Amino acid sequence: MKKKFYLNNFKTQWIKYDDYQINIDNNGNEYIVPNKDSNYTIYNPFEVSDKLLFDLIDLGDEALKKDSDKNIIKKKILLFARNYGLLGLISSSVYNRNIIGEEKVLFTENNIITKEKLMDTSEYMSLFTPFALEGDIYTRTFDDHLTVFKAEDSPKFYGKRPLILDVVFSKFYAEQLNWIIEFAKNISIHLNQLIIYKNISLTEPVTIMAGKFKAEKIGFTISMFDKPEINWEFDSLESTIETIYAFALTDESFILTRCEYCKKAFVAKSEREKYCSPSCRNCINVIKSRNKKKLIKDLNENETAEKNKLTKNDIGEVKGVKNMKIDEKKKEAIYEYKERKTTGGVYKITNIVNDKSLIRCEIDLKSMENRFNFSVSTGSCVNIKIQKDWKEFGAKAFKFEILEEIEMENDMSIIDFKKELKTLEEKYISEANKENLY
């Protein structure tokens, strides 16, 4: 079961449209821009922090493939924009806070837009509004205050946030596909390098991809309603994602890593968790099993070949060959025993009618799940704690769920493994709502 992470006490606002399209400007650059008939939604990126981050890393992973499919990448970008909006690179790529009303913009170091340091503001704005016609978007000054006028219906913040965001949130704002791809690739590469550094012994701190992640112009306030919240004032979704990524990496309750089978990013529950899902764990076990069978087959074929070379004078040694074969089978049995991994963990049986749950640890999770399925099929209760509700609501009212899996180490005794499982069970029980436990 994939663990999710949320930054519950964080809040910010961003805008997404329900439909986007890909257009090509006069220079052949591919842009993504909202459709004219699309509608916008204001949302809090922190409420979807896990999905937002994993979708971006997935896009970066696809772009990093040597045989990457451009059509797949375009579809992923369109889907990402529909779910989260554009990155707001016009704001995050320069040091200027407002941009509008200033003659020139000063670029941040290592930005993904250009290698130039300075650019005229009008030229810079045109990079992000290549399909806007005259009169679609312009500025006017009233009582010494600049205002952005847009020939369409989109949000305005009236001084609460930088004026440039009125442009970012308009249907005329566009971003090049290459810019979005580059940002996604940077996050993916950063995670890959971080995992490498975690697996080696460092003698001093190392800054990974120095200068690539240096969010500028971030502010925040603390608000109070039913609980204190940090209201972040980001000028771009890019900076928001970088902040989410930084918290996901450094929060000790999260372990952001990659699955050893499918290589997708996921949040592990412990350092021992190597696979993002039971399916990936099963796939790697199948591969190990096939490799072992192939090795044994090759050994047997070699043994048969050697046996066929025997001459009549060697007949007396055939019996010894047979004994060798028996010894090989013994070795195979020993090999299988040693290679067999004991996988235990914590499971939860939930009553889907009243939402009450039973949380327990088990030294063999697969056997426990089989016992549960057998109990459901026969109608016999699997645990006395839930017997009353089992009779009242029926077996079909209960579902089985694995909360966490861990493998017993080769040098660990059964007693120590049971103690570790019990500690893990107590952890999940302490985190659960006591009123909803059997």
TrEMBL record:
InterPro entries named in the record: GIY-YIG_endonuc_sf
Domain of life: Bacteria
Alphabetical list of CDD domains matching this protein: GIY-YIG_LuxR_like (cd10451)
Name this protein carries in UniProt: GIY-YIG nuclease family protein
Organism: Romboutsia sedimentorum
